Amino acid sequence: MNMKFLVTPAVLLLAACATSLSEDEAQKQAVSMMKSSFKAQGQASLARLDQDEVQATCSKYPPGATITKDVADKIEKAQFAAIKYPAKLMGDWKAGERVAQIGTGFQFSDGPTAPVGANCYACHRMSKGEISYGTIGPSLYQFGKLRGTSQPIQQYTYGKIYNSNAYTACSNMPRFGHSKILTEAQMADLTALLLDPASPVNQ
What are the start-end ranges of the H helices in the chain? Predict the structure, then answer.
């Protein structure tokens, strides 16, 4: 999984003042330092340090900064065009619940054969019975009950899981399909978890 990282203007300013470096030179040295200190281990490879165009663009905006509309539109259009939809958008919600609960995957502490999951509860509320969940992302409780299960809603839900930047530029949500974190079947199962009326998400 590629890693999005941000060297803030304050860090760059301190580095530039201390060494008389330009902002670009300070950025290059910071990236070089990270690459020399990170080691491939477990499921975490050094590829996570190589930013793609979207990550590099988003890293230019510090936390809380507003992305200009033209930049956001460009990102969303390109990322939306790259989504690959399966023939069947909804899988098994019970399998999707297992994927949502798994918190391992692509970390240095994960063994080569450890399962890779979505860890959805780290950022979202998803069911009435869950008492421990994150609030970085919006609540997904009753997601399908409020939206239905029409084909456009299935496509939106699968697409959002596949690549969140297709809908919200520089989203904090992992691009599960684009970055090959989850399989097509896992993403279809998560889509079912969110939309199936029998799922605990919609009770």
Answer: 9-19, 23-37, 53-58, 69-81, 93-101, 143-147, 151-162, 184-195
